[in-house]
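Example record for the data management plan.
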Amino acid sequence: MDGDEQLNFFRFPTLVAPIKCTVFPLVQNYEYEEVARKIAKSLPAVGISYKIDITGTSIGKRYARTDELGVSFAITDEDVCGIYISASDSGSEQLTSDLRCFQDVTAHNTG
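Corresponding structural encoding:
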């Protein structure tokens, strides 16, 4: 980033954020995009509003868009079996999880 650029983003408390989570694949690839879609479809069942981004722009730009929208968390599928969850505006709170574990948690909370 050049010294002239300035990062702008909203910061909402998670409870009032209109979009709680963004979901995107690490790379533009059909398999990764399908994993992102599966993750996104599971979120409303546990009360999480989301925005999916499979535009193919760089990962940094997708994270920046997440921050600009005031989204609390980002879920990135790093491969077809693993996901990475991070607090959007800080990057300090991170969790790497197996996709199957994530699916089990969301399934458990819907039933």
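Summary line stored alongside the record: The mean pLDDT is 77.
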